[in-house]
Task: structure prediction
Amino acid sequence: MRVDSLILRTAVRYLFPLLLTFAVFVFLRGHNDPGGGFVAGLVAAAAYGLYSIAYGAEQARRVLGVETRLLIGIGLAIALLSGLAGLTSGLPFMSGLWIDLPLPSPLNKIGTPLLFDLGVFLTVLGVTLTIIFALEEVE
Amino acid sequence: MEVVLAIVVGGLYAAGIYMLLRRSLVKLLIGLAFLSHAANLLIFTAARLNRAAPPVIAPGEQALTAPYADPLPQALILTAIVISFGVTAFALALAYRTYRSVGSDDLDEMKGTEG
Amino acid sequence: MNEWLLALPFFILLLAIPLALWMRQQGLTTAQMGWLLALFPLASLVMMGYAVLSAQGQPVAVSIPWAPAFDISFSLYLDGLSSLFALLILGIGALIVIYAGGYLGSDPNIGRFYAWLFLFMFAMLGVVLADNLLMLFIFWELTSLSSFLLIGYYHHEAGSRSAALQALLVTGGGGLAMLAGVVLLGQIGGTFEASALLVQGKALQHHPLFVPVLALILLGAFTKSAQFPFHFWLPNAMAAPTPVSAYLHSATMVKAGVYLLARLNPILGGHPIWLYAVGGVGAATMLVASVLAYSQTDLKRLLAYSTVAALGTLTLLIGLGSPLALKAAATFLLAHALYKGALFLVAGAVDHETGTRHVPRLGGLLRAMPLTATAAGLAALSMAGLPPLFGFIAKELVYESGLEAGPIWMAVALFMGLSTVFVAGMTGVAPFWAKPSEKLPHSPHEAPSTMWSGPLLLASVGLLTGLLPAGAAERIIGPAASSMAGQTIPVKLVLWHGITPAFLLSVVTVVVGTLLFAYRTSLRLTLQRLSWPWGPAYLYERSLDGLNALARFQTRLLQSGALRYYLLTIVLSVVVTVGWVLLRSGVPWVLPLSVNDVLFYEAALAVLILGATLAAILSPFRLGAIAALGVVGAGIALIYLMFGAPDLAITQFAIEALTVILFVLAFYHLPRFKNLSSPSVRRSDAVVALLTGSLMTLLVLVAVDVEISPVVSRFFAENALTKAYGRNVVNVILVDFRSLDTLGEITVLGVAGIGVYALLKFRKGRTKAESAAPSLARRSAQPAQAASAAPALTPSVPLPTDDPAEASKGGEAS
Result:
């Protein structure tokens, strides 16, 4: 299903990058301010969903570049691996590991929980887009 | 305010149950959505309401300073919201597939339908 | 060394199970399988025998911890009593395995038969060797289960199936009672080890729970050993192949109940209730089974009723409990196993060769089957209690015990003795010596060696132990009787001990029994005229019917197949149970219901949400309902925002937008709203819904009123930054403190996504939609095709309009 509307297409052309940037922003601030992987994934999914309504699911898939179901798998794998990292240091599964970086806050602390949140982000994005695209492509 | 929200929760539950009891598959889906709203709000209200600051540690502090909204139910509800989205999507797809297979959305007609 | 000789047979017998199946696949003949597989019980028997002999009269025990927390260990205990039973299980078992090779000669399922038979042998050996009573129970139920499988071996016959079920229900039900009794016994005795309980002796009899313990354990023993009024399952179990009847339903499994009574006699026996319950039930069983035996004409059913009578005798003797009675019990047990096993196998051979088990039709087989006839004759003489066979010694002892106990017990024993002589004549004499009355289905000839060797061996052992009873008395019967009594009973058996009152009674028994046999036809006809339909079997049938009717009724009531009624059942159950508890607690009447703190815009928001909810329900159009649903979600997001939960608020907003998109996309392919229920149904549903809603409101208020411990929340609040380097506590909980939960949740989410994909994308099994409702499928497909084929012509969102005319078209199509 695709909506043929010039206004929508024009609007989406500007909204799409804006929404994606917003998603990254929400994701990065998530650890210290309201936000995080769940919301960021949903916002990004909304961006692609909007895009698919304006330009069709096939075009949206092309822009995404990754098969949505693969995205689910990648997300889950990252989340799982971030938990395994603790095991290598002899700590329990899912223990957080942190590295200090000489960067301004909030980028100075990089740890496995952020990696985990990335997994959440990708899973949520993958699931939502899998559903939306599949529904749109139903004939 | 808890009293008011308790009534809202009750209203949402009533709406959810009523829609679930309809014979039309489409209405059942609406009922499902109402039910997840109701459950989330129930957890939120039952864990006490607080108009105070969100559970974010202010700059310069080492811990949350009272009064703060309880972060625990929020974490529970956040995942519940996303999961119920997944469930709703699944139910929608299931309803679509059922409708295509059975050729009807009347739940009473689906009784005993196989294959 | 000895300990391992005790445990090893279990592994040997288990090994035989897969081996039997494998052998069958290798294409061995059934007879070859029989001879080879008989080595397994024989090897086990040799090991056990060596263990017993080298222990020199001391019990052998081994204990491997299994579940120490529950005081359950894999503990085995071999004393005189278990030796006697192990001898029967393994010795007769080996003969049965050989015999079955001939009996089931052309059966394609023989591998399965042997697998079950060895499963049973394993379980039965476990019953008699287990020291831990809970282990004993497990093995006990395993014998019931394997008995079920073996009785139902001819599963294509309805009679076999119902007999198998009957045996399982009766013995399994009794087994459950026994489990309760054993658990209670373990509680009051402080241990589940029988050997440790035996040390405590009769001290447990003063415990207030002793009578329930006794009643429950007796229930298990009586059902297993087919005691009145549970005797009816055993004759029906004759639907099993004859080797199974001979083995399970005569020599071993049905004696498990007797074994349990004998094993626990030192603890439970001697109590006044014991004498009347055990002795009385045994006597009643003897009487009932003896009377019923006279009207039977089927070889196997005759033997079955006499087996029931023999089991009654054993029960009676244990109930009496004197050293003499226990000595008689041990002797009779061995004698019965020898002659009855032989006669069952003979019956199978006769059936196999002639094609019938109907005694009045049989006769004159002596010439055709001399070896089988020899075995039958010897066994029948032993059964009738004639010297110089072992059965004579056993019967003398039974009569002596009867005389010792009193005239009533003696009369019962005599009554049973008469029917025993009668059955011996019917099964061991009539088919071979009587005149053949009519032509048999097959012209008979001698059975194969697999089938005459077993009965002949058993019958010969009966003769040998009759002539030379001293060895068996010292090595087997003495130790067994001593274990039953809990003290040493010296046993000396002699064939001839003068003209005693017991001997005179034996003479009377044989004479009168022979007369009864001579006039068997008129006796049978007289008794059959008095047939009595209201027995326990009738009761069993009726209760089974009742159970099935109840199951059907409640299935119809609860499993209507209509989703509505399932939901109503669940919802109303919750409302009633939770509501009852709430009202009974009295909490709802004292809740502080203050609305003073409500701000104006908060109240307005609540009204908005409720209004949108009502609109969603009442909207006749799908789009209207979806829009209203979106308003509700947005309203809830605002509530989250107002009460310190910005994370929830933005998530809710995002989800709400996506949900609306989802619903619009999905509903595009689904039919319009229809009012399918009648107004009265809608009204009653509304009442249920409002009731549930009110209950939830009440529940929230009660929950708010409860004091909760903030320990967990405080931990998160204090440690989020210091330990997890995050200021947003909610996010820290999700990705760090409780990340394992989150991992589970996103996994569920992923599964849901894949599920949606599969439901929408996979095309198989969709034929029905195209064939049954082609117009519907076409109708929903058309706009999409149009949109892709000619985009310029469909400028608006091609959602189906909620047009009543089109809706009615959809209604017609479905």
In short: The mean pLDDT of chain C is 86. The beta strands of chain C are 60-67, 72-78. Chain C is about 75% helix and 0% strand. Residues 158-189 of chain C form the longest helix (32 residues).
